[in-house]
């Protein structure tokens, strides 16, 4: 069995073979990995068909220790230096080992891609796995290598534990945890992107994680959860992405890796008081791109208030989203693609869409462009909206206003779009308020893919995120390789039922 991203299915098996090496130094094409049986695999080849050599050390019968390194004209083992001839593609990985130290167990031909466990920094990031049709990723839950967990206990010292990797998509949680019973939880949404191949080996970057760290801290304050320090948040997010780097989609697909940090009360508790134990987890999932996004019709929700005037509207907590589901489903049935909330106190001002931030575009007779976003204490501080406004002002010289937006101003907007992590910007074709028989239409372009301003901002935003447009803002944070053994030492919540191959 091959683990760590390789298929269990053996395509072809060849007879057992033993080799004795007489050379003073042997060269193996390799990406080495120790599976759970204790065997080490040296895996070579590209594009689907790869050869795996399973072997143990001749002398100790312990997993052999081979140091992989990117192929270059010079490689160093200990104090010995060897000159390598350029006989292999630069994209190959090589490992060097003393002669006579190993014998092979057998050869197999398997279909899969290089696993990421135990890699060195020079091997990072690995290429995307080939077990996924990257042109049809879609928006569904997929199995990845696992997730990252960290725990907090007031009784245990009041600090967050060092993150650990769990090779499972499941959490171990007591049924009486306040995160389940009282909604004591907060979460985030962010993305990681693979840069073009020509950029430093197709590095992986996360878009503006510092902003998400700060927003989660503010959300945690609302529900009496100890703050996750920014440095710890960033570390856990980096490790979760790095440990699943093979699931970051190829650059050319336009797809990304969705990142879901989640913090919740996890200790068993009966009373409605702040508990002692909390858990912070980071899940990741490859997600597709919104191909051919078209303008959608929006419906103003008139019989439901998203949040009370002095409530939790600005916190990213589950309680702000689940109650909207029945209303949004009803709107979908009536052919509205998104729902819009007015302020709950007067129902006369724009707050936000149920899933994303509101941005309106005003155009002056002189050709000037102004972006307007709501100034309300009951809306989420959208990372996407803030980024779009920064781009608008710094790149295109547009004016940006953050202020109260009366409902009556809607017909004065030339364009309206919804800003969020999932689709970045979604052009709004119309906004309807049934009770007033109002339907305001907006420019979404001839093909309904967005008006002129929307398309300019979206193209620039996505370009910065995926590395095709210079990141002059310094928003992208490069993902670094996990420490050696971080993934290999993963624990399982329930290995018999939930371990991810």
Key features of this structure:
27 strands; 3 domains; 8-stranded antiparallel β-sheet; 14% helix; D-amino Acid Aminotransferase, Chain A, domain 1; D-amino Acid Aminotransferase, Chain A, domain 2; globular; 501 residues; disordered N terminus; single chain; alpha+beta; disordered C terminus
CATH topology label of the largest domain: D-amino Acid Aminotransferase, Chain A, domain 1
> From the alpha-carbon coordinates, what is the Rg to the nearest angstrom?
26 Å
Task: Tell me the number of helical segments per DSSP (H or I, 4 or more residues long).
Answer: 7
Question: By CATH's scheme, which homologous superfamily of the largest domain applies?
Answer: Aminotransferase class 4, branched-chain amino acid transferase, N-terminal domain
> Can you tell me the CATH architecture of the largest domain?
2-Layer Sandwich
Average predicted confidence as pLDDT: 79
Main β sheet profile: 9 strands, mixed
Q: Unreliable segments (pLDDT under 50, ≥5 consecutive)?
A: 1-120, 493-501
Question: What is the tally of beta strands?
Answer: 27
Helix percentage: 10-25%
How would you briefly describe this protein structure?
The chain has helices spanning 178-181, 209-222, 230-243, 325-333, 383-394, 452-466, 495-498, and strands spanning 6-13, 25-29, 32-34, 40-44, 49-57, 67-70, 74-77, 80-83, 93-98, 102-112, 147-153, 164-166, 185-187, 190-194, 204-207, 256-265, 277-287, 296-300, 338-342, 350-353, 357-363, 369-374, 399-403, 415-420, 424-433, 438-441, 476-478. It has 501 residues and is of the alpha+beta class.
């Amino acid at each position: 069995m091959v683990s760590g991203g390789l298929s269990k299915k053996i395509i072809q098996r060849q007879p057992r073979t033993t080799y004795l090496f007489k050379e003073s130094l042997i060269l193996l094409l390799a990406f080495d990995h120790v599976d759970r049986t204790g065997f080490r695999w040296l895996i070579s080849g590209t594009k689907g068909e790869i050869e795996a050599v399973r072997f143990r050390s001749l002398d100790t019968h312990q997993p052999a220790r081979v140091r992989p390194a990117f192929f270059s004209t010079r490689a160093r083992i200990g104090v010995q230096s060897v000159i390598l001839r350029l006989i292999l593609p630069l994209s190959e990985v090589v490992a060097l080992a003393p002669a006579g130290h190993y014998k092979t167990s057998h050869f197999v031909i398997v279909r899969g891609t290089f696993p990421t466990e135990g890699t060195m920094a020079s091997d990072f990031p690995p290429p995307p796995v080939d077990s996924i049709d990257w042109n049809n990723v879609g928006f569904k839950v997929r199995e990845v290598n696992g997730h990252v967990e960290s725990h907090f206990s007031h009784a245990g010292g009041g600090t967050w534990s060092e993150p650990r990797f769990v090779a499972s998509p499941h959490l171990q949680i007591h049924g009486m945890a306040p995160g389940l019973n009282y909604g004591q939880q907060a979460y985030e949404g962010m993305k990681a992107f693979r840069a073009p191949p020509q950029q430093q080996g197709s590095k992986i970057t996360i878009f503006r994680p510092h902003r998400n760290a700060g927003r989660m801290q503010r959300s945690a304050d609302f529900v009496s959860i100890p703050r996750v320090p920014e440095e710890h948040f960033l570390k856990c997010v980096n490790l979760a992405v790095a440990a699943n780097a093979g699931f970051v989609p190829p650059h050319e697909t336009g797809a990304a890796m969705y990142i879901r940090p989640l913090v919740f009360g996890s200790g068993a508790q009966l009373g409605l008081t702040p508990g002692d134990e909390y858990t912070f987890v980071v899940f990741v999932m490859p997600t597709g791109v919104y191909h051919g996004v078209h303008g959608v019709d929006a419906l103003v929700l008139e019989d439901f208030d998203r949040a009370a005037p002095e409530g939790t509207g600005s916190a990213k907590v589950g309680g702000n989203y689940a109650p909207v589901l029945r209303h949004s489903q009803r709107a979908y049935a009536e052919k509205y693609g998104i729902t819009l909330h007015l302020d709950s106190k007067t129902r006369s001002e724009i707050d936000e869409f149920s899933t994303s931030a509101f941005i309106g575009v005003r155009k002056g007779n002189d050709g000037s462009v102004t972006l307007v976003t709501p100034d309300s204490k009951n809306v989420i501080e959208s990372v996407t909206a803030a980024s779009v406004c920064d781009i608008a002002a710094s790149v295109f010289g547009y004016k940006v206003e953050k202020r109260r937006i009366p409902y009556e101003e809607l017909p004065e907007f030339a364009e309206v779009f919804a800003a969020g992590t999932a689709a970045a910007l979604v052009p709004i074709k119309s906004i309807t308020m049934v009770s007033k028989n109002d339907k305001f239409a907006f420019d979404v372009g001839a093909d309904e893919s967005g008006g002129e301003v929307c398309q300019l901002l979206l193209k620039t935003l996505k370009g910065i995120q995926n590395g095709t447009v210079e990141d002059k803002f310094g928003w992208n944070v490069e993902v670094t390789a996990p420490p050696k053994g971080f993934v290999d030492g993963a624990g399982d919540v329930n290995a018999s039922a939930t371990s991810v191959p």
